[in-house]
Amino acid sequence: MLRRVNFYSICFAFGLSVLLILAGSRYTDNANNRPYPESRRNIRNFFRIEDGEELFPQPIPTNPYDGSPNIDKILEKTRGKIKLELSNYNLTHSGAKKLENLLLESGGKPLRSVIISTWRSGTTFLGDILNAVPGNFYHYEPFLSYEIIQIRGPPQADKALSTIKGMLNCDFKDMEDYFTYGKSHWHQFSHNTRLWDHCKYKKELCFDAEFTSRFCRLFPFQSMKIVRLRLRLVRDILEDHELNVKVVLLIRDPRGVMQSRQHRGFCQPAPDCWQPELLCADMISDYVAAGRLQQQYPNRLMVLRYEELALEPTTTTLRLFKFLGLSLTPAVDEFLHSHTNIEVAGVSSTFRVSREVPFRWKSVLDYDYVEEIQMACKEAMELWGYRMAYNKSHMVSKEFYPLERYSITQ
């Protein structure tokens, strides 16, 4: 009997030891592989689709608080956070003597910038660079609800321009279409990381026009990116001296644009997105508009080619920030370092080995398709400084460098 008891005791002790070892190993693995909060945010962001649904939609955020949030408390905490983050910020380039001079809430005038481009041209990357600046309020794609079309004139242009002005003035009233669309398309809000920090817990805040307006007025910097509006229409914005907006036109090689759209299956069957003829007609229109607007507003419009930004991100960002009146910060340095040296999969991931992206089309696209694009885009490519590939061997050769100098003339 005693022998049997000893046998069961040994078996029990052995089993308990195995369970403890397995539990400890599992805990250690989880601890070693547990992402930091910011990493978790980035991982979720990898699967966002630019201008579309999330690849793996996240559940609707829930409010962890009891009852309604205290709006005044949120605003007060945000004021304090902005002041703390900008306590060592160099205001010299902005032309402001103190932070309050840049706050709408204090009767000041924020630094405002608008990126104009088209789909799959690098706007998400450029927009996130600007949003890395502390104290920035990011108006992400205000025309998502328009679906896959280009706004080139009436009837959409008047409403679109009114929306832009309203947002840059932090006035979100009468924007029912914008908020209604956002209720079922959370990425419209989530790119605005400072707003989303509150909306992800209380979803109603994101489509509360009064809260969004008051929250927006706390920020000294505003940025907006638009891929559905052609450059000539922003004249109306540039003429508004109260807004004092600076515009950045982002251009990309049409072969790279079409390769990216094709690779992602991005916008079939929308003609404005899959026909190279329409893409390059817009590039010609933007070139003409850039010449005229730079003559009229020489300090308010800057043109960037995506390839320059990808190949020399730090140098190009310094030039961009000087134009916009912004100062480079450690947060921007960290963003550039982390997003240009590693590749992370995802439809709109901005983590790329940036120097490898601009000319990827050379090794990916079939030459017959490249030739089709070049035939439709010959004039646009000449204007914007993109060299033609003459045959397949020329296209894939290391000696073929697609960029050349260009100049904008009226």
Kindly describe this structure.
It is a single chain. The chain has 410 residues and is of the alpha/beta class. It has a single domain (73-359), classed as 3-Layer(aba) Sandwich (Rossmann fold), CATH 3.40.50. The chain is 49% helix and 7% strand. It has 19 helices and five strands. It has a five-stranded parallel β-sheet with strand order 2-3-1-4-5, with helices on both faces. Helix 13 packs parallel to helix 18. It starts with a helix and ends in a 14-residue tail after the last helix. The model is unreliable at 1-5, 20-66 and 342-353 (pLDDT under 50).
**For the residues shown, what is the average pLDDT?**
85
What gyration radius follows from the Cα positions, in whole Å? 25 Å
| CATH top level assignment | Alpha Beta
Please name the CATH architecture: 3-Layer(aba) Sandwich
Level of helix content? 40-55%
The main sheet orders its strands as 2-3-1-4-5
Flag low-confidence runs.
Answer: 1-5, 20-66, 342-353
Structural class: alpha/beta
Shape: globular
The CATH topology is given as Rossmann fold
* Helix-strand sequence: HHHEHEHHHHHEHEHHHEHHHHHH
Distance between the termini: 104 Å
Number of helices: 19
Kindly give the count of domains. 1
- Number of beta strands: 5
| Largest sheet geometry | 5 strands, parallel
Q: In what range is the share of β-strand residues?
A: 5-15%
